[in-house]
Amino acid sequence: MLKPEQVTQFQQQGYLVVDDFISPHQRHTLMQHAADLIEAFEPPEKRSIFTTDEQERSSDDYFLKSANNVSFFFEEKAIDADGNFTVAKQRSINKIGHAQHALDPVYKAMVHALNFNALGMELGIEKPVAVQSMHIFKQPSIGGEVGLHQDSTFLYTQPKSCIGFWLALEDATVENGCLQAIPGGHTIALKQRFRLAKDGGTTFETLDDSPWPEHALEMLEVSAGTLIILHGQLPHYSAANTSSRSRQAFTLHLVDDACDYPKDNWLQPIRSAP
Ligand code: FE2
User: Fold this and answer.
1) I want to staple 175 with a disulfide (CB 3.0 to 4.6 A). Which of 21, 51, 136, 243 is the partner?
2) Is 203 exposed, middle or buried (0-12, 13-18, 19+ CB in 10 A)?
C-alpha cells in the first residue's frame, strides 16, 4: 500500500502524510454513525466529574472500562460547575473510545476495509493487533488542547511497537487544532509510561526526565480524507479549537503481538473480536 520512499520518509521523520486515504462517502459514514451513537447515548446523572474524590473514582472506573467498550467522554468546557450542559449534546462530546474497532459493526467494517494491518506490516510490525480506537470531535469553540505526548506512553510494549493512524474526517487547520509534531522526534527516548497503579487507578511512571528538545513543532494542516501515520515515540500535540468549525478525526492504534504487552498497561485490550 505504501511506496518504498513513503516507508523511508516514515522512518526518517517519524510520521507520514497520505493524501486522499478515504473517500468522502467513507468519512460521512463514520461522522453520521458517530452522530447516531451520540443521539442514542444517555448522559449520566452525575456530570460534574471533576469535583469530588468519589466522582473521580467513578470517572477512573469509566475510563478503565472504556478499554473494552464504546464509551463517551465530554469536553471539559461542555459542562458547568453545576453539572449542566453549556452546549447541545451533539456538541458536548470530546471523544468516543476505545474499542469500537472491535465492538461496533460500522467502525469494525471500516477498519477492516481500510486494511490498517497491511500498513502496519509495511512499517515493520510483524503481527499487527488493533488495541485502541477513538472518534475525536475537537468541538467548535470548546475542543480542548491535547498536550505534547508520545503514544507509546499509553500503549507500551517491549520492545516498543505502537503505530498510530490518524484519519482526518474534516479539514484540520491551525485554527481548529490540527496535529503538530516534532519532525524526527521519534528518536527521542520515551518519557513516560501510563500504567495501572498498584493501589488502583492509574499513574504516570517517569522513564526519562530530560526536557523536550527545543525543536519547533510542525503544523500538520491536512484536508479531510488524509491519513497521518504516527510512530509511537513521535512527540505530537494539538491546540484547543478556537474556531467555529469542528475537527473530527478517527484514530486507530496498532501494536505488535510479537512483542510483550505488559499486564499493567492501562488498556487491556480485547484479544479476539466477537
Ligand atoms: Fe496521540
Assistant:
1) 243
2) middle
225 in Cβ contact with 22 (< 8 Å): yes
Residues 6+ apart with CB under 8 A from 62: 71
Decide: 236 and 213 in contact? Cβ < 8 Å: no
What are the chain's domains? 4-39+50-256 (2.60.120.620)
Q: What is the CA(212)–ligand 1 centre distance, in A?
A: 16
From ligand 1's centre to the CA of 82, what distance in Å? 31
pLDDT tens-place string over residues 196-232: 998 888 899 999 999 998 878 999 999 999 999 999 9
The tens digit of pLDDT for each residue in 121-178 reads: 999 999 999 999 999 999 999 999 999 999 999 999 999 999 999 999 999 999 999 9
CA distances from 203 to 48, 151, 195, 196, 197 (A): 22, 15, 6, 6, 5
Q: What is the pLDDT of residues 25-65, one digit of tens each?
A: 999 999 999 999 999 999 887 654 444 455 566 667 888 88
